[in-house]
Write a structure and sequence with these properties.
Blueprint lengths: L11 E2 L2 E2 H17 L5 H19 L7 H21 L6 H14 L2 H4 L12 H14 L17 H7 L3 H25 L1
Antiparallel strand pairs: 1-2
Length: 191
């Protein structure tokens, strides 16, 4: 179906200019590249799926840019997939997204399981187990810490202040004598 069949003006698609959709395509593709999706056919399918979802929203949310809608849909799609694969509630979306991306890399999704990315289940058991295992390892191990105060070490400056004043007096007297000698030499040569 052509873009004008939906009532779009020439040069626009789903209410946004084609340049905006091209920019959105580029951003989504870059994100999937960052996740190391290298299979060009799979990459094209994933980007198309995200843009389709964004175009559906674009018709009702005309005040928002194509890129903004596409990035939100991409994030939502990835987080929903992580929640399903990892059997984790999608409520903590930011933590799920961060730890899920790390689990993808630790489970070697780009090398061994690329075709499973964003695919609906069921997934190979080995893949799902590896993702869940690495997801659990991706988080920090919390430990209680007890910090006891220690005295500050100011380094060599403390030893300088604790020495006797005699070496400083000798050095100051030597420099004063040297300055006096220079003044005397100047006086003798100019008078």
């Amino acid at each position: 179906m052509s873009a004008t069949a939906h009532g779009d003006a020439p040069g626009s698609l789903a209410g946004c200019p084609l340049e905006d959709w091209n920019a959105a395509y580029s951003k989504v593709e870059s994100y999937f590249h960052a996740l190391r999706v290298r299979n060009r056919i799979l990459l094209g399918q994933l980007v198309a799926r995200v843009l389709e979802r964004a175009m559906l929203r674009s018709e009702s949310e005309t005040q928002r840019s194509a890129t903004e809608l596409a990035l939100e849909e991409m994030d939502r799609l990835v987080n929903e997939w992580f929640a399903q694969v990892l059997q984790s509630p999608p409520s903590g979306a930011e933590m799920l997204s961060t730890r899920g991306r790390l689990a993808l890399l630790l489970a070697d999704m780009p090398g061994k399981w690329q075709e499973q990315f964003l695919r609906p289940g069921p997934w190979p058991e080995e893949f799902a187990a590896k993702m869940r295992e690495t997801y659990l390892r991706a988080g920090p191990d919390f430990q209680l810490a007890n910090m006891t105060p220690r005295p500050l070490d100011l380094g060599p400056i403390t030893t300088l202040t604790q020495l006797s004043r005699l070496p400083y007096f000798k050095m100051a007297a030597t420099w004063a004598l040297f300055g006096l000698l220079l003044v005397l030499l100047f006086y003798v040569t100019h008078h």
